[in-house]
Each structure stands twice: as structure tokens, then as C-alpha cells.
Amino acid sequence: MNLLFKALNDPTRRQILDLLRAGDLNAGEIAEQFAMSKPSISHHLDLLRQAGLVESTKQGQFINYSLNTTVLDELLGWLLSFQKPDTAPVDSPSNHLINH
Amino acid sequence: MNLLFKALNDPTRRQILDLLRAGDLNAGEIAEQFAMSKPSISHHLDLLRQAGLVESTKQGQFINYSLNTTVLDELLGWLLSFQKPDTAPVDSPSNHLINH
DNA sequence: TCAATAATTAGATGATTGTCTAATTGATTA
DNA sequence: TAATCAATTAGACAATCATCTAATTATTGA
């Protein structure tokens, strides 16, 4: 959950996710949508990949990025549990202090 | 959306939200659940308040904190739109570069 | 095989963040 | 009114983060 929230806590990364909804793109195609250096975008893609939000596959000299929304299910569950009270899922790490 | 993701991007703050599901608490009651100084918790509460996730009301010398889940609806909408493709909501700020 | 292209890695830098202690504000009560 | 208690604000500090340029790796095509 930590890596997920971290990845989502940046407008550029969220925009990358939104871009990928329309279909897969390679790193260069993503980078040219932003007024930011390619290494910076590469770093953002790395964080998104660490969170499991995107998957990368090498295709020749290009690296293709695609959306993986299954990770969002965990977040969705956490979020929905706020509407239905008293069904709080566990937010790791280390809530042993909290749960007595 | 920025303040919301920022507020959620910390395990302590998410645990505070989880605590408040059971019912309102004042600042001291919240602080004593954590192995952290009271000013630090106060700061976390401030960020949660800025994001609209909690509301604070002064009651005598105590300050009561309560959960406000309506802000989460925006996030919920954004999240759900990933399941139903091609219904991307707008993620402010400044996506003028992207949407040409 | 070599030059060009795609992308990442390395390293640096300024800004933001989470935490602390000390000081302050405001309310209660002896 | 003075002491105590709840909570925040102020200010400092180390760690993390977003970004940049320069260098590196790997693939392609002439």
C-alpha cells in the first residue's frame, strides 16, 4: 500500500496512468507528452512499475509500457470500506501499536 | 486531488483515518495511540484537515476530530474509471500540456 | 562495423517532508 | 489569579523526492 500511495502522489505519474488508458505507449512516446527531461520520465515510470501500476516489456530497442489496474483493487477495497463502516482492512506496515 | 493524495501518502495519517472510523476522537486521544510526539500528530491532523479528510471542532479545551469521507468520493470516481475504460476524469492541476 | 537512436543509470542539487524539542495560546479549576 | 492541562505554532534537522545534465547500455540500420 505504501508504494502504491507513493506512486500516486505525483501529478505527472497520475497523468502517465491516464495516458496509458488509451493504450500502450513506449517510454519515448510518453516522454514527449511532458515538458520534462526523458530521464525524469524514466524515473517516474520506474516508480509506477515498482508500485505495480504499469508493466514494461522490451520490444527491440523500445520499451513498452502498459497499465495494470489490478493493483488498484486493493486501494479500491480500502476506499469502499469507508462507505461501509466497520469493515476496515489492515493497512500494513506496523499497526501493532494501534491494534492494542 | 493533490492534497488528497499527499494526505494519504503516509501510514500514520492513514492509521488516523482508520482510527476515526470507530468514532470521533480528540487530538490527545489520537496522539496516545502512536509512539510519536503530540506536535507530530498535530501536524498530521493538519494535513488531513487540509485535504478535507477530517474536520475539527473545538470543544472547550479539547479539539475533536471526525472523519469526512465525502472527499474520498472524488478519488473513488477516479479509481472506478480505470475499471470502466475511456471515462477518465480530469486530474487537475495543469494538464493543458497533455490535452494539447 | 560504426553511427544513430531509445532508454536507463549515475550523480548532483534544491525543495519538500516527517520528526523532534521548546515556546506559545487558550481553557479549566483550585 | 495562578497553576495546570490540551493543543498548536515555531524553528531546526535529517531524509526523501523531483528534477536536471552527463554518461552508459543496448539495439538498429547504413
Automatic annotation (TrEMBL), chains A, B:
Keyword annotations of the record: DNA-binding, Transcription, Transcription regulation
Pfam families: HTH_5
InterPro entries: ArsR-like_HTH, HTH_ArsR_DNA-bd_dom, HTH_MetalResp_TranReg, SdpR-like_repress, WH-like_DNA-bd_sf, WH_DNA-bd_sf
Protein name, as recorded: DNA-binding transcriptional ArsR family regulator
SMART domains: HTH_ARSR (SM00418)
Key word Transcription regulation present: yes
GO molecular function, one term: DNA-binding transcription factor activity
Lineage, opening ranks: Bacteria, Pseudomonadati, Bacteroidota, Cytophagia, Cytophagales
CDD domains xref list: HTH_ARSR
Chain ranges of the HTH arsR-type domain: 1-87
